[in-house]
Design goal:
Layout lengths: L2 H17 L4 E5 L7 H9 L7 H6 L6 H4 L5 E8 L7 H6 L5 E2 L8 H24 L9 E4 L7 H7 L4 E2 L5 E2 L7 E8 L19 H5 L5 E3 L2 E2 L5 H7 L15 E3 L3 H4 L26 H5 L3 H7 L9 H14 L5 H10 L5 H34 L6
Parallel strand pairs: 3-10
Antiparallel strand pairs: 1-2, 2-7, 4-7, 5-6, 8-9
Helix pairs in contact: 1-6, 13-15, 14-15
Bound molecules: iron/sulfur cluster (2 copies).
The site of one iron/sulfur cluster has 13 residues, from helix 9 and helix 10.
C-alpha cells in the first residue's frame, strides 16, 4: 500500500471510530522498551499483590508483538463512560448507601468495547480488500483487546497521543479528564503514527496522592495495588486486611477518589452511551438492601455487569465492611447477626469485624450521650 493510501486509511479509521462511539483513537508502534524497567520495578516491589498473572506475563505486557506476531501498529481507543447523573457526592456522603465505582454501574465495558473494536477491524478489513482487490486476508492478522490480554494499555495510549499517565497512574486527557475506558486493536498495517502528548501536565499537583483514603499512591505514578481499594474490593480474593477496612467507608466495588479530586476531570464529559447508564438497583443502593440479596439475586441483578465477576462471597465480604463502617442501627446489627450462622468463613470473619466495630461505636455514642446528659443536668438553668 502506498504512503498516501495509508494516510487516507488512517483518517478513515478515525472517522469510523467516532461513528462507532469511540471518543478518540490514536495510532502508535509497538515499542515500549522504555516502560520495561518501570514495570519490572513495580513487580519487584510486589505492588501487584496477588495478581499473579501480572508477574506471570512478565515483559510480554510491554511487547504487543509477542501477543500477535506481525503486529506493526496499535490503534489505541478511548470511550467516555461517566453517566449523566453520576451522584458521586450523594452516595459517598451517605454511609447507608453503597458506593460502586462509576465505571461499573452499567453494562460490562469489556463486551461493549470489544464488540465495537471488532466492528472497526472488520471495516478496515473491507477497505483493505477494496484497495488490494482481494478478499483473502486483505489486512493480515488483527485482534481487539480490552483488558483481556497482558498489555500496557496506558503507556500505549500515551504514545498514541491520547493523553499522559497521571500521578495516580491513570491516563489523563486535557479535554476529557480520566473517566474513560481504553481498548486496543493490534494490526499489521504500517499506518502513519500519531504524535504523543508533548509533556505530562500534572505539574506540582499532588491532590490524588493526598486524597487517597488508603495511601495507595506511594510515590508519584506508583500505585501499590495491595493498598488500593479497587484491588482490595475487586481483584483480591482473600480477606481485606483490617488496617484498610475502616478507611474504605461505603466503597463496595472500586474507588474513584483519585479521579474525583483531579482538576482535569472538570472537563470530563458524560457519556451518551446507553450501555453505560446506571442500573437502578446499583445506583445509590441502600447497603441493607444489597445485603439482603441471595446468591441467585446477586447473579440476576449483576447479569452482564462487571460486578458479577467478583462472585457472591467477595461481594458479601465488601458489604460486611461497608455495613461495619455505617451507622450502628438495630436493623443493621440484626441483619449481620442473622447472616452469621452458616456464612462462608471469610465472610463470617468480616461479619464479626463489622459487628464488633458497630458495637464499639454504639458504646462510644452511649458514653457521649451519658456525658452530655450529665453536663446538661449539672448546668441546668432555673427555668429548664
Ligand atoms: S482508586 Fe482509591 S484507593 Fe486506589 S489509588 Fe485511587 S484513591 Fe487510592
Ligand atoms: S490529581 Fe493532580 S497529580 Fe493527580 S493525576 Fe490529577 S493532575 Fe495529576
Amino acid at each position: 500500500m502506498m504512503a498516501a493510501e495509508l494516510a487516507q486509511l488512517a483518517q478513515d479509521i478515525k472517522l469510523w471510530a467516532r461513528e462507532l462511539g469511540f471518543d478518540q483513537v490514536g495510532i502508535t508502534d509497538t515499542d515500549l522498551a522504555l516502560e520495561e524497567p518501570r514495570l519490572q520495578a513495580w513487580l519487584d516491589a510486589g505492588h501487584h499483590g496477588t495478581m499473579d498473572y501480572m508477574a506471570r506475563h512478565g515483559m510480554m505486557r510491554a511487547r504487543p508483538f509477542d501477543l500477535l506476531p506481525g503486529t506493526l501498529r496499535v490503534l489505541s481507543v478511548r470511550m467516555n463512560y461517566l453517566p449523566f447523573e453520576a451522584g458521586f457526592a450523594a452516595t459517598l456522603r451517605d454511609p447507608t448507601l453503597g458506593y460502586i465505582s462509576r465505571y461499573a454501574l452499567g453494562r460490562d465495558y469489556h463486551k461493549v468495547l470489544r464488540n465495537r473494536l471488532k466492528q472497526l477491524g472488520e471495516r478496515i478489513e473491507r477497505r483493505c480488500a477494496e484497495l488490494f482487490h482481494t478478499t483473502t486476508d486483505p489486512m493480515g492478522e488483527w485482534r481487539p483487546f480490552v483488558d483481556s490480554a497482558p498489555i500496557l494499555e496506558r503507556p500505549l495510549a500515551a504514545k498514541a497521543g491520547l493523553g499522559w499517565v497521571g500521578k495516580h497512574s491513570l491516563l489523563l486527557n486535557e479535554s476529557a479528564g480520566s473517566f474513560f475506558f481504553l481498548g486496543e486493536l493490534l494490526v499489521s498495517l504500517p499506518l502513519p503514527l500519531d504524535a504523543p502528548v508533548e509533556k505530562e501536565q500534572c505539574g506540582k499537583c499532588v491532590a490524588c496522592i493526598n486524597i487517597c483514603p488508603t495511601g495507595a499512591i506511594v510515590a508519584p505514578y506508583v500505585v501499590d495495588g495491595r493498598r488500593c481499594i479497587s484491588y482490595l474490593t475487586i481483584e483480591n480474593d482473600g480477606p481485606i486486611p483490617e488496617e484498610f477496612r475502616p478507611l474504605m467507608g461505603n466503597r463496595i466495588y472500586g474507588c474513584d477518589d483519585c479521579q474525583l479530586i483531579c482538576p482535569w476531570n472538570r472537563y470530563a464529559d458524560a457519556s451518551p452511551e446507553p450501555d453505560f447508564s446506571p442500573r437502578p438497583n446499583l445506583h445509590r443502593p441502600p447497603l441493607i438492601d444489597l445485603w439482603g440479596w441471595s446468591e441467585n439475586e446477586f447473579l440476576k441483578h449483576t447479569e452482564g455487569s462487571p460486578i458479577r465477576r467478583i462472585g457472591y462471597q467477595r461481594w458479601r465480604r465488601n458489604l460486611a465492611v461497608a455495613l461495619g463502617n455505617g451507622p450502628a442501627t438495630p436493623e443493621v446489627m440484626a441483619a449481620l447477626q442473622q447472616a452469621r450462622p452458616g456464612a462462608e468463613p471469610m465472610v463470617a470473619e468480616h461479619i464479626d469485624w463489622a459487628l464488633a466495630t458497630l458495637a464499639r461505636r454504639q458504646q462510644d455514642e452511649n458514653k457521649k450521650t451519658r456525658l452530655l446528659i450529665r453536663c446538661i443536668e449539672k448546668g441546668l438553668p432555673d427555668h429548664a
